[in-house]
Specification:
Strand order of the largest sheet: 1-2
Radius of gyration: 16 Å
Helix content: 55-70%
Structural class: alpha+beta
Number of strands: 2
Order of helices and strands: EEHH
Number of helices: 2
Shape: elongated
Length: 55
């Protein structure tokens, strides 16, 4: 229910906490996790689908 206020590209942006979570925080988190995974795979680290899913 809290309002989040950010300064993006020189302007104030305000949104609810849920909007921030779903539209800013989660996509940013998944982008960085995927990028790290891709870099590790590119460098020969043996990661695969089972690494994400577990046993």
């Amino acid at each position: 229910a809290r309002t989040i206020e950010l300064r993006l590209a020189g302007r104030e942006v305000s949104m609810s906490g849920l909007q921030y979570l779903l539209n800013a925080a989660m996509p940013n988190f998944y982008f960085h996790v995927t990028t790290a995974y891709d870099i590790l795979r590119h460098n020969g680290v043996p990661l695969g689908k089972a690494t994400f899913l577990g046993r």
